[in-house]
Amino acid sequence: MEKEKWTWWLAIAFTIAVPAIGYISLGIIPALIFLCGYAAGFIFWHFSTNTAWSKSISVVYWLTFGLFIVHRIEEKYMGFFDALSDLTAMPKPEITSTPIIALVLLSVGGWIAAPFMIERKSSFGYYLAWTFLASAGISELAHFIFPFFKTGNYGYFPGMWSVFALAPVAWYGMVKLKKSNTKS
């Protein structure tokens, strides 16, 4: 599947916009973490041809998405944003603030739309799929780095436990998506 010029520009805009909105709403550290996932997703997408989306990839994708929801629930109930605020010295964002709503709409909305876009042969859908899998498999590993920046002994950071399942499933999804590529 050839990537049209407008798709490249849209992917670049997304790769910049999501971390930028993350910076506005959460500060530099989360923005850099978002950038890792989106930049990795962009690079993986750039070097892929992505012409096949099988049922097995779809199953892994939606399993990863389900684990992502579990991860977000763990973060919410274990006080992730309070812990992040303590770590970054940034105020805890209001869930209904415009930047947080924009962040969720662009990222999670795009990730939900990706398989449906792919069914319609959209190269941008593949970009979104790659950013989701890279974000879940790479960016979420930050939960294991955050405890090094807390005072005291290394310990649990909200959201950490669900990453043990989320990241490996996302890695598997990236492998399956990469193997699905065929040369045009």
Structural class: mainly alpha
Radius of gyration: 16 Å
Q: Using DSSP, what is the number of strands?
A: 0
What global shape is seen?
globular
Q: How many strands, what sense, and barrel or not for the largest sheet?
A: none
Helix-strand pattern: HHHHHHH
Strand content: under 5%
Describe the oligomeric state of these chains in a short phrase. Answer: single chain
- Helical proportion, percent range: over 70%
End-to-end separation in angstroms reads: 7 Å
Instruction: Compute the number of helices.
Output: 7
| Contiguous runs where pLDDT drops below 50 for at least 5 residues | none
For the residues shown, what is the average pLDDT? 91
Architecture overview:
This protein is an all-alpha fold and 184 residues long. The chain has helices at residues 5-26, 28-46, 55-78, 80-88, 98-119, 123-137, 160-179. Helix 3 (55-78) runs antiparallel to helix 7. The model has no long low-confidence stretch (mean pLDDT 91).
What is the strand and helix layout of this fold?
Blueprint (H helix, E strand, L loop, with lengths): L4 H22 L1 H19 L8 H24 L1 H9 L9 H22 L3 H15 L22 H20 L5
Helix pairs in contact: 1-2, 1-5, 1-6, 2-6, 3-7, 5-6, 6-7
